Structures are given as C-alpha cells and as structure tokens.
Amino acid sequence: MIKYRSPGRINIIGEHTDYNDGYVFPFAIDKYIYINLEKSEKFEFYSESENKIIIQEKLEKTNTWADYIIGVIKEIEKILHIGIPPFKINISSTLPIGAGLSSSAALEVGIAYGINDILNLNLSRVEIAEIGWKVENEFIGLRCGIMDQYACSLSKKDNAILLDTYTKQFQHIPLKLGEYNFFIINSGVKHELGNSEYNKRRQECEEVLNKLNKKTFRDVNKNDLEKLNGTLFKRAKHVVEENERVLKTVEALKNSNIQEVGKYLFESHESLKNLYEVSCEETDFIVDFLKNNVLGARMVGGGFGGSILVLSKKNEFYNLIDELNKRYHEKFGLNIDYFEVNSANGVEKIGD
Ligand code: GAF
C-alpha cells in the first residue's frame, strides 16, 4: 500500500477571478486528504468519513464522493490512451469537507498524483492540476476555474502562489507575516444553492463579455464598467477591482506591509457580499464581528457558507473566539470551528 497526502488550500485574495482570466493568490495548508493506493482485482473505493465502500468492475458515475476518483481515472485513460488497472483506494481526511477549503480538488489531485507515481506516467504537476480541473468541469459539472487544483498540486511551504489564470504563469511569493498569521473559521454552513449559483455567476460573466464584445475579462477595464448596469455591472466591477486588489496585496506582502494586506481582505469581503453576492448571513455575521478587532477577514472560496480567512495576531484572535462563538450560537444555533493556518507543500508521497 502506497500513501499520499494532498492538501487543502486557502486563498489570500482573488475570489471568483480564476474563471475570468484573472489573478489569484492561494497557498496549500497542512490539512490533508490522505490516500492509500494498492493494486487490486477490482476497483474498490473506501472513504473513512463516509464509512462506505464502492466496488466497481467497470468504472461508472455514482453521484457520490467516489466520482472525484472515478472521474480522474477515466480522464487519465482518455488523455493518455491507456487502461488503468484496478486499485483499492482508501481515503481519510483532516481537511474539513465542504468548508470552502478545496477538499474536492485535494482528492482529484491526490488520486492523479498517486496513480501517476505508481504507474510511472510522467505527468507533470501542472498536468495533474489540469486533470483535476477537467474532472470538476466535465465529470462533476462544477464549472470552476483552475485555482484550487493548481494550489493543491504546485504549492511550496512558506510561500503563496501568485497565479495568472490567463497565461497560467505562476510565481511563489514568500509568506512573511511578521507577528501576524492567518486563521480559518469554519462557519459550519454550506448552502445548497452554492453550486448552481456558482455556475450562474460564470454565465453572468460571459454575458458581460458578450455585452462588451470582448473575448476575455483581461481586456475589461474600469472605463468599460460605464457601459454596463444592474447585475452585470456589479459582477464586472467585482472582478476588475478584485484583480487590482490581488496585485496590490502581493506588493504589500513583499513590502511587509501586513496592515495593508488586512485592509484588502476586508475590501474583498465587501465586494463579494455586495457586488458578486456570494456571501451569506452567517459568514457576514462573522466578518462583521471581527471588523474592528483583527487586521483583516473575508469569506474564502466559492461562498454561500464555508470558511472565513482571518489575518490577526495570535493572542488577539484567541481572545475573541469564545465571544464570537457565543454570539454566533445565539443567533444561528451553530458552533464555529477554527484553526491556525500553516502553509504546506503540494501533494506528496508519504510512505510505502
Ligand atoms: C471555488 C472554485 F473551485 C475555484 O475555482 C474558484 O472559482 C473559487 O471557488 C472562487 O474564487 O473554490
């Protein structure tokens, strides 16, 4: 049995820009999907958290968590014109599932990496990320961008990745936060409409391009916004300004201006809430509570629940959390979950 671990990710800034040819700035975190792979007679998939085994002789879609695995195997077969022999695959996780921390990309990338390693297929880390992205778009049906799979595959500990999703160029930028650190607060909610609203946002952005007669969002600038109104104006304004914020955040980080990084996080949240409209009551409540008490905070990932990224001094964060949990529980009847974020390497083998 060969063991691999594939990390989740946070995104410092650049939300809903990755399918709009924009910039993103994520890094992998030390919360993982663990994958054990072993050649076998049949395909056998076991998830510890689901406590379920799925056995298949011929791979077919199941509409369950196993589709992320099945999709990857089928995609590798398709692009390399090979048959993949049956594997027994065990999955366990320290990464909260469905919390906006990229658990599905971690699984896709982990499976592709492991199979590539065992069968010596010579796929690069970029190709592995692209396979995961294709599976998500074509097999699962979420029309996501490339951020999550690139972060899970290409991250380097102590760095974040500035990724230009238009050219697919990326650079690792050292994560030097001085006396501050990032924290995650999991709101514990994931609203059902998330996936359908995600695809709807994508469609609205395509409508923006049609209206402006442009091929790529990369050519949309502030002056173009005047030609739009209503929903399309709001969506486009978010994308244009969020891209600017990514580049300003990278500069601020390079200059060790962590206060400024925090300011952009709050601005990003406001924009995701009011212009892109992918936030929700629960995550807004948490960000509002934190507003005057930490350097920065914003929802992270696709939205409609999930997690909040917080930039704060450690003791200040821990001093707030009990009061926040109390008020959150009073209002929503739910408890938050939280942890300090440590950066991590992309997917890797951890043992035979
Ligand atoms: C989800 C998607 F999978 C990403 O591609 C990205 O669009 C993100 O939402 C929003 O920035 O995580």
Automatic annotation (TrEMBL):
Keywords: ATP-binding, Carbohydrate metabolism, Cytoplasm, Galactose metabolism, Kinase, Magnesium, Metal-binding, Nucleotide-binding, Transferase. Residues 68-155 form the GHMP kinase N-terminal domain. PROSITE patterns: GALACTOKINASE (PS00106), GHMP_KINASES_ATP (PS00627). Its EC number is 2.7.1.6. It is an enzyme of class 2 (transferase). Residues 250-329 form the GHMP kinase C-terminal domain. The keyword Glycoprotein does not apply. The keyword Magnesium applies. Pfam families: GalKase_gal_bdg, GHMP_kinases_C, GHMP_kinases_N. Residues 4-35 form the Galactokinase N-terminal domain. InterPro entries: Galactokinase, Galactokinase_CS, GalKase_N, GHMP_kinase_C_dom, GHMP_kinase_C_sf, GHMP_kinase_N_dom, GHMP_knse_ATP-bd_CS, Mevalonate/galactokinase. GO terms for biological process: galactose metabolic process. GO terms for cellular component: cytosol. One of its GO terms (molecular function) is metal ion binding. Signal peptide: none annotated. Belongs to the GHMP kinase family. GalK subfamily. NCBIfam families: gal_kin, PRK03817.1. PANTHER family: GALACTOKINASE-RELATED, MEVALONATE KINASE/GALACTOKINASE. This is Galactokinase. It comes from Marinitoga piezophila (strain DSM 14283 / JCM 11233 / KA3).
